[in-house]
Amino acid sequence: MDELIGILREIRPEFEFRDSQDFVGDGMLDSLDVVTLVAALDQRYRISIRGVEIVPENFRNLETIAVLLRKHGVTG
Amino acid sequence: MNLRFTGKKVSALVTVLPSREARFEDEMGNFGFSRAKSMKLKRVMGFDRHRLADERTCASDLCLHGLNRLFEAGELRPEEIDALIFVTQTPDHLLPPTSNLIQGRAGLGRNTFCLDINQGCAGFVIGLLQAFLMLESGFWRKVVLMNGDTLSHRVGKRDRNIYPMVGDAGSVAVVENDPGGPPIHAAVYMDGSRSSVLQIPAGGARMPSTAATAVEEDVGDGNLRSKEHFFMDGPAVFNFVQTEVPPLIDEVLAAAGTAKEEVEYFLFHQPNRFMLEKLADALEVPREKVPNNIVENFGNASSVTIPTAIAFVLGPALGERKVRVCLGGFGVGLCWAAMVMDLGPMRICELTDYGCDN
Questions:
Q1: Closest Cα of chain B to A36: distance in Å?
Q2: Of A6, B5, B169, B271, which has the most beta carbons under 10 Å away?
Q3: For position B161, what pLDDT does the model report?
Q4: 8 Å CB contact between B230 and B200
């Protein structure tokens, strides 16, 4: 989880992502941030998050992102 | 809807780009992002340079320039043109049809059938379909398909969803009969119930232009635009494309009896690099078979991105040989359309500039 937080803070360093359960709703990630995040996750873990998976529900908080990553075989 | 045509071809193509070029790094201060975030977007989305028409240049000027280039090259004579289709979202006027204006300026005969089509990012495929249907009638033998837009004039300069990627361009394709030519397969879908995700709300009869509609407003996420500016719900459009386009491509390939490996290039409309990479992955085709270099070099000029890609990516090859392609357009309407066909060889398939003020 620490690595994921690090990736998120590279995109929006001004936010403490542990404190929110709704990154999009709380204004911490906009749609372009999500695109940047997906590109970063793809590159870091050598995966390709599918286009149809790029929906706000999957990027709501640390847990939903972790669930998405586990679907692509990323653990830990 | 699945369609099949035989004995048709694109025999020549010219794409015209305004000479005026702007750079994302010079403009990114307008968008309210940090430099670090802007540079990440530049890399991921492919924002770099875009071609923008000056205020006095219309899409029809770009297309007329391309038509004259074909005349000068000896590819076409005015009296040969039986029909002129102009696909645009930026007509010269609300009326008359811009195709009629082009007919008059180009000195085409009174027998030339002129038709405007209001279509966006699927407009090259839609225009080809219309041209094929005209040829199929047997009444006409040579159709000129023009695609042109100067949408940069209708985008807020501080709208970071659209302005970094928008571009202006025009193209002219000559479409004619090709006796014995291979079948061309197409599939097209439309869904007007979702049309609000891409629109210019004001300026038509439903919401006429007023002083109020011209005022730029913060829409809540830092984006500034007026009701006379192009609006795009980016996440909704992205989801639409990723959901609808892969099955569309599978469908048209199946109808054509063509395996993905037999397609040399998937030439899709190019909104941004990220969208195209995700489409390639969804289709399970190598990313290099889905060119995504038009936005970074020229910007997204709506229906002209596909003919721009044909000329930019395939121009030299098409001078010498046939290339099997799958075209795919998707956008305003909503509309999504695809076509599997052979392109080339063509005697002329090129990009050319149109002089604009800087």
A1: 7
A2: B169
A3: 85
A4: yes
Q: Within an 8 Å CB–CB cutoff, is residue B261 touching chain A?
A: no
ipTM: 0.93
CB contact under 8 A, B221 and A30: yes
- Read off φ and ψ for residue A10, nearest 5 degrees: -65, -30
> What span, in angstroms and rounded, lies between the C-alpha atoms of B218 and B155?
14
SS3 B206: coil
Walk along chain B (358 residues) in steps of 10 and give the mean pLDDT of each run: 94 98 93 87 94 97 98 95 98 97 97 97 98 96 98 91 94 96 97 96 95 88 86 93 97 97 98 96 97 96 98 95 97 98 96 92
One-letter amino acid for residue B53 of the chain: A
The dihedrals phi and psi of B263, each to the nearest 5 degrees, come to -90, 125
pLDDT at B221: 66
CA distance B131 to B3: 13
B279 in contact with chain A, both atoms CB, cutoff 8 A: yes
Find the closest chain A residue to B239 by CA distance.
A52
CB pair distance less than 8 Å for B238 and A48: no
